[in-house]
Design brief:
The protein is of the alpha/beta class and about 650 residues long. The protein contains 13 helices and 27 strands.
Length: about 650
């Protein structure tokens, strides 16, 4: 049967109009499309003089003797070499027909799901070039072959999940290849099965969304994933598309959304069959899928897609829709969007990159408003999260206003070096909607590339000691109580130290060794999600400073949704090594307030002091700090105390 959800293409101007990609009586869809009585194939190769499809169904009859590779001027992206037998001389059994629009089409009755295949492009200069299907849903490897796949042949068992609203989202960023490696000695990365094996841990922790670092097929077996070779194929070393569907279905059954990280600012640069796909290029650059001028340059190679070309825009649009439709993903996180909207993440703009984001995101918002769209932009532009005509239409963006000042505050070794004004500004910054930003102290970028995990940065000589435990969890408390979408990075909850590497799996013994720290994270997440109906304010838009003392390193803030009992929350942060035993602060209302969490409690760690904190505080109707009421708190060193209004 034909693939669902991929039925239209933009016109050549890329303005969101449509143009049929098929002639009369031709099946819809790109790549290998199952039809009654066989498989239809369609590929875009506008400069080809002919295109064949070949594979196991015809004993690879059309493969040339020698595979074509780019010249030395294209050393950033080598074409792949087929892994299957080649014939002595090409004798193609299945030559596609031109649809007179740059696309080529044919039907192969004997082809069936599970068979490997390739396209053979006849270039205008006479070369024969063997290519992996750009739309292949499964590949044997990034230098292998496409596999005919039926994306509809999966039993979702009634999966009909709706992700949490943005104000109730807690995200867990995860790298599949290192999350849970069942056999670290087998010289292979961890797989999607490993994520399933730890679903109970994620459920106990309380997170309700996992954000998977890129899953598209990449070169080799070990990678962060930000070097996609085949953007429609799920990484074979992780288990391929079937395992991803299993994971999404199982995550949904546990109430956990799945967000997929996608890379559209560049492709490759290695193992990249898209490079000079049909033999044409200009200036020694990438050909039909890429800019062939100064706009091609990225920090990762000369492989920026040509966002101004309708067929390339459609290719990327189709890919975004695939993750949502064929894999039931609940959202997308776009990698480094500054390099989509500009050449250098600066002022050299690429307007069509911005409009592409707007088009895809607007379509997703229209088709399913519950889907989650996140940008890694890190420039603080409000237009990134604007759905207006001149906005990029993301729901949220990773927020540089939060991570850098908060991380700096908890890492600083000297109390006098902490800037509580900067912490306050980080907590209270807004793009207009409190939940249009993702806030964190650890992400894959923040714990690598010259930086390390927060406990390691706090105390490299003793990353499991008192100071590392206290201040890293204090940072996490700020993440989970501040306005925004909180995110933690895998293993953060059991004090993982060192730095992130794609070859070093998480040490799950730490889950037991630091079970108290895991409990602290779980308790913070429970409060953040108002699980007991007492802290609704942490899901609300509002925040205000109640008290700030930069000399004492104390910052107290108020969170609320509508306000009132069960809603108002006060978060008192002590970023000093001093115990403040009778510390008066302004309060938003008089009356009884209950202590919901004291991060110094020994139940969280035997290294903690366990300073007694009153279980209930009476706020008196007496102005203080510009508030109508005041209360006296006990603030343990390097701790957070969270209270809510009875």
């Amino acid at each position: 049967m034909a693939e669902a959800g991929i039925t239209t293409t933009e016109n050549a101007t890329g303005d969101g109009g449509t143009q049929d990609r098929q002639s009369e009586h031709h099946a819809e869809g790109m790549g290998a499309v199952l039809i009654d009585g066989g498989v239809a194939f369609r590929v875009w190769a506008p400069h080809a003089t002919a295109v064949d499809v070949t594979g196991e169904f015809d004993d690879w009859s059309a493969l040339p003797d020698a595979e074509e590779t780019p010249g030395e001027d294209a050393d950033n992206a080598e074409a792949s070499t087929a892994l299957s037998p080649t014939q002595t001389g090409p004798s193609p059994a299945h030559t596609l027909v031109s649809e007179n629009n740059g696309y080529w089409y044919g039907e192969v009755p004997e082809a069936q799901a599970g068979q490997e295949y390739r396209f053979v492009v006849h270039a205008s200069d006479g070369r024969l070039i063997s290519r992996i299907d750009p739309y292949a849903r499964t590949v044997t490897s990034s230098v292998g072959n496409g596999v005919i796949t039926d994306p509809t042949d999966y039993d979702w068992q009634g999966d009909d999940f709706t992700p949490p609203a943005l104000n109730e989202l807690v995200v867990y960023e995860m790298h599949v290849g290192t999350f849970f490696d069942q056999d670290p000695a087998d010289d292979r990365p961890a797989t999607l099965d490993g994520v399933e094996d730890k679903m109970d841990h994620l459920t106990h922790l309380g997170i309700n969304a996992i954000e998977l670092m890129p899953l598209a097929e990449f070169a080799g077996d070990y990678s962060w994933g930000y070097n996609p070779a085949n953007i429609f194929a799920v990484e074979s070393a992780y288990g391929g598309p079937e395992k991803l569907r299993d994971l999404v279905r199982i995550a949904h059954s546990h109430g956990i959304a799945v967000i997929v990280d996608v890379v559209y600012n560049h492709f490759g640069p290695s193992d990249l069959d898209l490079w000079q796909f049909d033999g044409w290029s200009e200036n020694g650059k990438g050909g039909i899928y890429f800019y062939n001028d100064w706009r091609s340059a990225t920090p990762w190679g000369d492989t920026r897609p040509d966002y101004g070309r309708g067929e390339v825009r459609q290719f990327i649009h189709d890919n975004a829709m695939m993750w949502l439709e064929e894999f039931h993903a609940d959202g997308l996180r776009y990698d480094m969007t500054p390099y989509m909207r500009s050449v250098d993440a600066g002022e050299t703009n690429i307007p069509e990159g911005w409009s592409l984001s707007h088009w895809i995101n607007t379509d997703i918002r229209r088709l399913d408003p519950s889907r989650i769209l996140i940008a890694e932009d890190l420039h603080g532009y409000g237009a990134v999260v604007s759905a207006a005509d001149d906005g990029a239409a993301f729901h949220a963006q990773w927020d540089n206003h939060f991570v850098h000042p908060v991380r700096a505050a908890v890492i600083a070794s000297d109390d006098a070096a902490r800037d509580m004004n900067a912490v306050r500004d980080a907590v209270e910054f807004s793009y207009g909607d409190a939940f249009s930003r993702v806030i964190y102290t650890e992400s894959h970028d923040e714990v690598a590339n010259g930086s390390a995990r927060v406990p390691e940065e706090i105390d490299a000589e003793d990353p499991e000691g008192y100071y590392a435990q206290k201040r890293s969890t204090l940072g996490a408390a700020l993440v989970l109580t501040s306005p925004g979408i909180p995110m933690i990075f895998q293993g953060q909850e059991f004090l993982t130290d060192g730095w992130f590497r794609d070859t070093v799996p998480l040490d799950w013994h730490r889950d037991e060794e630091f079970s108290g720290i895991v409990r602290l994270y779980a308790d913070l997440i429970s409060l953040r999600l108002n699980s007991e109906g007492r802290t609704k304010g942490l899901t609300g838009q509002h925040v205000a400073t109640l008290h700030l003392n930069d000399e004492h390193n104390v910052y107290v803030f108020h969170r609320w949704y509508d306000g009132g009992p069960g809603d108002d929350v006060v978060v008192a942060v002590n970023l000093s090594n001093s115990l403040w035993g009778e510390y008066t602060v302004g309060m938003p209302a008089a009356g009884s307030w209950t202590t919901r969490l004291n991060s110094d409690a020994t139940v969280y760690s035997g290294a903690f002091v366990g300073t007694p904190v009153p279980p209930r505080v009476e706020a008196e109707e007496e102005p203080y700090d510009g508030q109508s009421a005041q209360a006296t708190l006990v603030l343990p060193p390097y701790s957070v105390v969270i209270l809510s209004r009875d």
